[in-house]
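Q: I'm building a small set of examples for a reading group on sequence design. Run inverse folding on the following structure and report the sequence directly after it, with nothing in between.
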């Protein structure tokens, strides 16, 4: 029995370290695997003792003593109850996700169901992905109310994204760790960038519950405008209805969205063969560009006068011709006045 009591104390220590200690910086895949093996052992232990009154009492006393000791070392540690042992893996995962010191390689391991060969412990691969699938199913079934329009998977990923940013930005005034995290996630999403865009949209549409979460959303909006052009990719990938929601929720996104549309227009050339404006890098078609502008103007009618003045000025800089195909700004202005895409 003494060995069991010590094991339970060790489990509480593991959860405290995972959530509150910078010791996780020195963890590797092998150490992470052992941690989750230990968490599974604790869950099995709980299933064996939860109906045994004497053992329950002894274990609860052990946890009470251990919690008190750990709370003096880790001020943010809230303690573990005996019933918590039934979900020890989940608590371990949540603690690690909220610890800004967790190495990015281990974070990728938890998310990627096809982990690189350097992580031999395949039972950990995609652990977070499995949880996301489970929560996504709950969202689809209506367990979680007020679902966002991004899709269930993206909503859960967006929530995880915001939690991680909150942890990183709370830790230090230095924003480089948060930037490195987002850059790494973007790089890891190569080939599935559309899913990443949906997750970012979900993160930005999540109602902030604290000043810290608002700051994290502002940071994410600033990061989108960096040279990797992820903002342009979002605008070309996401449906206009979702972009409208983002522009409605964040003025900074609305202003950036408008800047992207002007950038797209400036990159268009008139094709005599097609009888239409085409983008030099095939980023967007002219009808799609008009649709984007109309979406933005419908959301913020007050922008109309300013947009018309700016487009008129740009049209004049092209020679102020009213002939189709001579100025993208003139043709765009005409389409917006008609209020139609075609």
């Amino acid at each position: 029995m003494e060995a069991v009591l010590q094991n339970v104390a060790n489990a509480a220590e593991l959860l405290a370290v995972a959530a509150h200690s910078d010791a996780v910086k020195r963890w590797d895949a092998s150490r992470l695997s052992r941690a989750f093996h230990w968490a599974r052992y604790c869950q099995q232990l709980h299933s064996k003792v939860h109906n045994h009154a004497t053992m329950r009492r002894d274990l609860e006393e052990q946890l009470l003593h251990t919690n008190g000791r750990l709370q003096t070392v880790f001020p943010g540690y809230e303690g573990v109850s005996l019933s918590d042992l039934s979900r020890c893996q989940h608590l371990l995962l949540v603690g690690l996700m909220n610890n800004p010191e967790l190495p990015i390689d281990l974070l990728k391991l938890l998310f990627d169901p096809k982990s690189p060969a350097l992580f031999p412990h395949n039972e950990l691969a995609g652990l977070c992905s499995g949880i996301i699938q489970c929560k996504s199913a709950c969202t689809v079934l209506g367990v979680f109310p007020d679902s966002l329009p991004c899709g269930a998977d993206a909503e859960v990923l967006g929530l995880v994204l915001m939690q991680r940013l909150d942890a990183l930005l709370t830790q230090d005034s230095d924003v480089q760790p948060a930037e490195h995290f987002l850059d790494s996630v973007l790089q890891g999403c190569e080939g599935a960038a559309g899913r990443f865009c949906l997750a970012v949209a979900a993160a930005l549409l999540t109602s902030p519950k604290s000043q810290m979460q608002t700051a994290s959303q502002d940071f994410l909006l600033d990061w989108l405008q960096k040279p990797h052009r992820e903002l342009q990719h979002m605008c070309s990938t996401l449906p206009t209805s979702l972009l409208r929601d983002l522009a409605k929720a964040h003025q900074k996104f609305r202003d950036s969205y408008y800047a992207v549309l002007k950038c797209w227009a400036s990159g268009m050339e008139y094709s005599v063969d097609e009888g239409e404006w085409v983008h030099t890098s095939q980023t967007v078609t002219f009808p799609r560009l008009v649709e984007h502008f109309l979406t933005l103007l419908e959301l913020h009618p007050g922008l109309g006068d300013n947009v018309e003045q700016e487009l008129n000025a740009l049209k004049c800089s092209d020679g102020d011709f009213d002939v189709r195909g001579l100025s993208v700004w003139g043709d765009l202005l005409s389409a917006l006045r008609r209020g139609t895409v075609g």
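The longest helix spans residues 29-49.
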